[in-house]
Structures are given as structure tokens and as C-alpha cells.
Sequence to fold (197 residues):
Amino acid sequence: MSHFSTVKTQLRKKEFLKQALIDLGYVPQEGENLVRGYRGQTVKAEMTVEMKQGGDIGFRFNEGTKSYELVTDLDLWKQSIPVERFLAQLTQRYALNTILESTTKEGFQVSEQKRNIDGSIELVVTRWDP
Amino acid sequence: MAQRTLRFKIRQDGRVEETVEGLVGDGCIELTEKLEAALGTVEQRKTTSEAFLRKEVQKQIIPAEIH
Fold:
């Protein structure tokens, strides 16, 4: 039946996480890599972004929540936006890519896509069924 | 021919509001379940007025882990 859902997006699929990072202008690397933090300390992560400035950014899969989590040394955060804003942007991009890919696979076509003044993205997809 | 429409509003914090139009019966749930599984946790789901126009009684199971 027709319905209305609200979904709290989690970074679950590696390929969409990677694409979201690329869309935001980062160069992600897959595979077990080290995230560099304060005084050369490191942690392992499954997806990493080497940063020219500040500490690296990594993503580790949390078996409990079945989603990827950010791992970085917050004391070394030198990006132009705060970490919360970075995660929000990444999650929004991830959600958009996931929706586009999944609905296209199901035969839907995008009939409208726009960005609102409040920063939200509106997307309408349609399909004709016999 | 019937038109199926999915409307999404992806908020700045990544939360997604999804509205499904034109789908009758469980097909609508099936279609979006896959999508919701890839996206994350469903916080809220309610049927639109359209759902009440149908004769047959519909049942839907909402996963217990909703929070």
C-alpha cells in the first residue's frame, strides 16, 4: 500500500560510501589501510582517505550496527568544515546515490531532482506498470 | 497502465523522507524494503490516505528494531 517512511541513513554499502567520498572531492582507498593520527599513531580501517593537511580519515565497519563509522583523530581535524558537517554531507550524498541506483535497478526513471534552499534534495522517480 | 511514483526528500543530515504513490497491496512494501535495507533504519512508516481506499484489508509488519 502507499505509505510514507522516514529513514535514518546509515553508511551500509561500501560501494556507495566510496562514491559519496568521490562526489565530495576526496580520493578514497579501499582495503586495509592505516589512518594516521597524532604523533604518527595509526589505526586500521577498511576505507581510507589520505589527507594532505591534518589527520587521515578512515571508515571501519561496525558489526553491531552493520554500518561504516568514521575514524579519525579529531584533534588533527583541519578540513574547511566541521566533522559533523562533513558526516552530514557524506550521508546525504550516500543516500542520494543509494536511492538513484536502487530505483534505476527497479525500472524507475528520475522525473525531478532539485536542491532546496534549506540544503535538502528532492527527488521524484516514476515507473509505468501494466 | 498505472504510474508508480516515489518521492524522496533527503535532508541535510542524511535523513530520508519517502512517499510512495500508486502502489496497491504489499508490492509497495516489497519494492521499498530493499531500498530501506540499503539506506538504514526506518524510523517511521505510515500509510497514506490512498491505502484506505482499497477494499481488502492490508497488514504490514514493522520490524521490531525500529527506534
